[in-house]
Amino acid sequence: MPYLFKSHITKILILLPLVSGFSFLAAPLFSEEIPQSEEVIDLSLEGTIKYAFKYNKDIQIQEEEVKAARAGIVGARSIFLPHIDVDSGYSYNDSIIRFSPSTKPKKDPGIFTGYRNDFQFSLAAKQSIVNGGANIANWKEAKLNLRVQEETLRAKKLDVEFEAKRLYYGLLFAFETERINLELVGLAKAHYENVKSKYDHGTSSKFDLLQSEVRVSNYIPGLIKAENNVDLISAELNKLIGFNVHTPIRPTERLRCKLIRIKEQKFLKEAYARNPWMIIKLLGIDVAKWAIWVARSTILPTLEAGMNYGFRSQNLGNMFNYKHNIWDAGATLKIPVFDGFYTKAKVDEAKAKYAQADLSKVNVVDQIAVDIRQACLDLKQSAAIINSQKDSIKEAREALKISEVGYDNGVTTNLDVLDAQVALSQTEQNLAEGIYDYLMARASLDRTRGRQYLKG
Question: Based on the domain organization, do 354 and 445 belong to the same domain?
Fold first, then answer.
């Protein structure tokens, strides 16, 4: 009986009493059925990112912030346009002053002393002419805020895109690790069957047989762990893209990469120009500058003009004629003299925030430089591993064949074959890890440089 079959039967026989003994305890906790697996879904990296964008709540919230910022520009711009109001009303006056003029007036004098039944209708227009520069500053701030919100949205998309890449590349790496472990177990089983056949014919020792059998057993946990990693990363990826966690996913791409030339200074220059957080900090300095103007405006003169035109009469049906119309126009100039040092305090506060914004920008500049350096070092390290391992796989496979032929001919030992199997598996694993690390370094570099896989 093959070793694996015997081993699994033994484990089942050992665990069966324990499982049956605890079944009455487990039933209430796991009464719900696990959802059945759906049809396998083929998924590309681009599709993963699109789904992640579609279902990510942070992106949806930030999109609403952008809409609010656009509305804020309209609100700030409204101060430059005249504000027009229409008023109408009625009041009953118990006591009014009456007089009879000696001559017929051009207009009904009652309009100046009031009516018992007083109907009113007026059209008022008001325009701010000078407001100490606050109107312009608020408008500039609103425009800058829109750009800040747009860059924040781009930053959130870069973060979500990076997470999608991490899980998608992680799934590719998990599948490759599963394949490597499955191949190792297959090689070990095939060698065990070969040793067992030789042992049955008296050409192999009991030690070789037991040694081969133990190696197969030792490789099983690694395969199980690799299979579990595939399931776990698939569940995390499903959660990110809004699928049921039990949905089986089949990546349409393979774990491979194309090496790029590392130009750290070029990468750094691009990051300073395109990194959204860098742009946000620069915009924050401009916002703080205009905030100083807003704070200073409270001590500067303001000028406002206005005009009213309306009708007032005791007869609603005869109100709209030249005898009942009234109008007035004027302008108001306000010159602040002393506000208890309120303006000085607000200006000092705004200047402090301006200095804080500038320091914050310097901090981001330094962090970007560190992130670019880290990404470049990771790229160099991963590229070195890839270059050292990709050619070694062919040599490791050749060494394994030689060891197997040598063992069949009595030239090499059983341990030589087992070591050659491990060497091949380790070389493939090192290459897979190197490619995964290189892909993640590229993803980190793209995020720092502000490069999106998907535009928009």
Answer: yes
Report pTM.
0.79
Query: What is the C-alpha to C-alpha distance for residues 180 and 424, in angstroms, rounded to an integer?
Result: 9
Cα–Cα distance between 360 and 348 in angstroms, integer? Answer: 18
Q: Closest Cα to residue 307, out of 82, 128, 130, 124?
A: 124
Distance (Å, whole) CA 195 – CA 202: 10
The two structure tokens encoding residue 402: 């030689």
Domain of residue 325: give its range. Answer: 83-131+302-335
Residue 399: which CATH number?
A: 1.20.1600.10
Torsion of CA 276, 282, 288, 292, to 10 degrees: -150
pLDDT tens, position by position, 380-410: 999 999 999 988 999 999 999 999 999 988 8
Q: Are residues 113 and 44 in the same domain?
A: no
* 279 neighbors 73 (Cβ within 8 angstroms): no
Residue 191 lies in a domain: yes
Task: Calculate what percentage of the chain has a pLDDT beyond 70.
Answer: 87
> Which of 101-115, 173-187, 417-431 is least confident?
101-115
- Does 171 lie in the same domain as 200? yes
pLDDT of 11: 38
